[in-house]
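Thread: guanosine-5'-diphosphate complex, take 2
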Amino acid sequence: MTGHRVQETKEKISREVILPETITIQELANRMSERAVDVIRMLMKQGQMVKITDVVDADTAQLIAEDLGHTVRRVSESDVEEGLFDTVDAPESLQPRPAVVTIMGHVDHGKTSLLDAIRKTAVVSGEAGGITQHIGAYQVTSPSGSKITFIDTPGHAAFTAMRARGAKVTDIVVLVVAADDGVMPQTAEAIAHAKAAGVPIIVAINKIDKPDAKPERVRSELLQHEIQVESLGGETLEVEVSATKKLNLDKLLELIALQSELLDLTADPTRPAEGTVVEAKLDRGRGPVATVLVQRGTLHIGEIVVAGAEWGRVRALINDTGANVDEAGPSVPVEVLGFNGTPEAGDRLAVVENEARAREITDYRQRQKREKAAARSATMRGSLEQMMSQVKSTGRKEFPLIIKGDVSGSVEAIIGALEKVGNDEVQARVIHAGAGGINESDVTLAETSGAAIIAFNVRANKEARDAAAQAGIEIRYYNIIYDLVDDVKKAMSGLLAPINRETMLGNALILEIFAVSKVGKVAGCRVTDGNVERGQHVRLIRDNVVIHEGKLATLNRFKDAVNTVVAGQECGMSFENYQDMRAGDVIECYRVEVIQRSL
Ligand code: GDP
Ligand code: MG
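Output below.
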């Protein structure tokens, strides 16, 4: 008997119970360290007959857990994925790792040329042997000896798409701007993407060999995008280069090394690997091939990996020079062979302990993928109205927008007009704006940042339309600035919290208290000023202190219920859910109106 009691007090430890959307009785009991029969008994009391293997939803599970004195933490994704990513590295195992760099910029400004030039110079001067194949990422050694990893993302959209899926791959963005062309729409786009990701930018002013190169112009144009380079007194590192003449490439690498030092990049190479799929393809001879950037830990041959909805046992690892390797550590790009299916670029990769776990995760994800596809066709999100309610529920008071217009003049005018719309409670935030049609990159950016897309005298191209339809992002088209601003204003007004406006009606003095059967206590009063109305709000004031706030339940004159009693008349009043009134108290009667504000 005594032993039992001791055990009982022990069991009363309150646990934090992690609850997925659904859970079996058995698992729920395990997580609470309670007996499954007790859980079943509780459900039976509520009229539910369940077996230990039955599944209950999170709401039911939460009630049970809280009844038993535990706290719960609901997880939206199935906890199949719990602990798969982002377990914190042990601080004592952290070691410096190479920076991961993405080159971005306007088309034809020399991204590919620069990537190739760096690769060739560095490979020739650094490692022996030639390049046997091209993979989507490679590593070079800077003149001072630090390693740098470049990844070749196919476009800005891909950059943000990766970010959208939780993969923060890039540490530094090299922004290529052609000195003979200056800041162009995709330059601005690249800046927006980098800023949204919070990644530092290094400006590479390219094509400096050209006779019509005007690097000064590039610098001043960048100012308009809030990029102030060092030579203009700012903080952004910059270098003038020529990809074709191979000018200043070493200097660029040194700047990258410098910037990485500032970032103090570290990772734990001893833990199981985590990484991101940079690109993936189905190769005829080799099967599914994924180019993976390892981000933490070390990936080894023979390990079981999952990426997206696919898994496999690592059969071979091939590095950027085409050599077979046994392992790949942090910031190292490798081709991974051995997947059972082809994962997608942007999928995060993780090593798991066994095949069963890999199957559990990928089964769940494949199911989820199917459900998402079904749900996507059923509901569209991203319309202004829905966005409004989303923003509301998250309590954020910024209204993110992407604005594209026919000419930069109109875009500026729109931004100017929108800036005037907000107040300190709600404000339009222009994530990205520019001249030109809506492209796929705008849509991905909208998707990640939860922004609405506003098109002024421009249209979306086919890829963008498809992507928007896929993601359920609404693109709003306008040709009159006033209409545009008015619509945004309306949507933003919905974010303002409504205010309650009180109108004073009148006061009454309590003369005596009666007990009336069924009704309870009734206050016999005289209205001293204004009037009182049935059903309105009241405050009970005793010695100038408010002791109750509520509503009037009944209002009578003699035996009759009335709607209003005016000053000078006597009446009987009773309150909703309140009995403790006394003679001498003052009843203040007022009306409350809920007023929806607008901007
Ligand atoms: P991307 O679209 O940004 O990848 O640009 P590319 O690398 O394909 O380059 C576009 C064009 O600019 C090609 O014809 C290159 O040869 C040329 N180009 C790139 N860099 C330089 C440079 O530094 N100097 C000169 N003169 N031309 C360059
Ligand atoms: Mg290119």
